[in-house]
Specification:
heterodimer; A: 180 residues; mainly alpha; 2 domains; 7 helices; 83% helix; B: 177 residues
Chain lengths: 180, 177
């Protein structure tokens, strides 16, 4: 077990996560918390993210609240959220100003397009990595629920709250029944 | 035109409410945000909203920053700060208390069932996000190759993904695409 980080370490780690997260923060959050710092296990990350996704609000911000408060209480939660959000918020306003002046230039637009493509690939890799501990545990049940969530949200484009409301209780009940 | 303070209070109240219904993340309330900003309050045109959304997606950071930019457009830096605090604050408080309650119960039989039951739903949703992003981003074979290369490098190596993103942006900037 690694020593619990203090508020300063939490602030700096989430600052790094926020500033790296082009086109989505999740891949960088998983990499920093699980692979680099070792603050969470693979399964612990999935479990915490699941909790955060079942609550309203930006998932990664929720994740920073949970991680921060677990290690350093309310102060740690605040340090984590502030670290995650403050710098990107400043940057995005600068970017909006710049975009207003230079956004029409073709090369800038195609750089942003290429960036989006790479960012999408990154999320795909994260999904694959997250699926690993799941499929090694109870592959059939986990796989079926995973596929159902994927089809509902990605193909049928059902509203997320609805998918959560239907799938989550079913999946939890199935897991409870299996564990008996 | 209303008083700035009145405007800021209204912005805060509406975004704070959105914070509490944003199940599945900030992107799930983007359509509602668009309705508020464009149709109800006429803060901006539909085109302006779409541009702000694209900018918020191309910046680093959590995907709540469309709220920041709407606030910025409505009332400058003050509006941006108010909108940002409003979209995170209420859900953060809720999560703080929920996580405390969760940590007390996670090792009960139901706690373990909830954890192992919710995990595959989450992974399915992340997969769906990846799929939707890939569909929107991969407009041609070259862009598809960029996505595939990034995915393979990120899955099989521990290389910092920023290198892939920088390389992609460089390719785009150089006019290769």
């Amino acid at each position: 077990m690694i020593a619990a980080p203090n508020a300063r370490a939490l602030f700096l780690t989430f600052l790094g996560i926020g500033l790296s997260g082009f086109g989505g923060v999740l891949p960088f959050a998983r990499r920093a918390l699980v692979e680099r710092r070792g603050w969470m296990t693979e399964g612990g990350f999935n479990e915490t993210l699941a909790l955060c996704q079942s609550l309203p609000g930006p998932n990664i911000v929720n994740l920073s609240v949970v991680v921060g408060s677990r290690f350093a209480g309310a102060y740690g939660a605040f340090a984590s959220v502030f670290g995650l959000v403050a710098a990107p918020v400043g940057l995005v306003m600068v970017l909006a100003g710049l975009w207003g002046r230079f956004g029409a230039i073709g090369h800038v637009a195609s750089a942003v397009t290429a960036l989006s493509a790479a960012a999408a690939g990154l999320v795909a890799a994260t999904a694959a990595r997250m699926a690993r501990p799941l499929l090694s545990g109870s592959p059939l049940l986990g796989g079926v629920v995973m596929a159902a969530a994927f089809v509902a949200v990605g193909v049928l484009r059902s509203p997320l709250p609805l998918v959560m409301l239907v799938l989550a209780p079913l999946s939890v009940l199935a897991a409870r029944w299996r564990a008996r | 035109m209303r008083l700035p303070l009145e405007l800021l209070v209204g912005l805060f109240a509406q975004f704070a409410l959105l914070s509490l219904v944003a199940f599945g993340g900030a992107n799930s309330v983007v359509p509602e945000m668009q309705r508020l900003a464009v149709e109800s309050h006429h803060w901006m045109s539909d085109k302006e909203f779409t541009a702000l959304f694209a900018i918020s997606q191309s910046a680093p950071g959590p995907n709540l920053m469309i709220a920041t930019l709407v606030g910025w457009k409505v009332a400058g830096v003050g509006g941006a700060l108010v909108a940002t605090v409003a979209i995170c604050g209420p859900s953060c408080l809720l999560t703080y208390w929920a996580a405390k309650a969760w940590d007390r119960r996670r090792n009960s039989a139901w706690g373990r069932a909830i954890a192992s039951g919710l995990a595959p739903v989450t992974v399915g949703m992340v997969s769906a996000t990846a799929w939707l992003l890939l569909r929107a981003a991969d407009l041609n074979l070259r862009l598809g190759a960029i996505s595939a290369t990034t995915a393979i490098v990120a899955y099989f190596t521990r290389l910092n993904p920023l290198w892939c993103l920088a390389a992609a942006a460089g390719l785009g900037l150089s006019g290769f695409l």
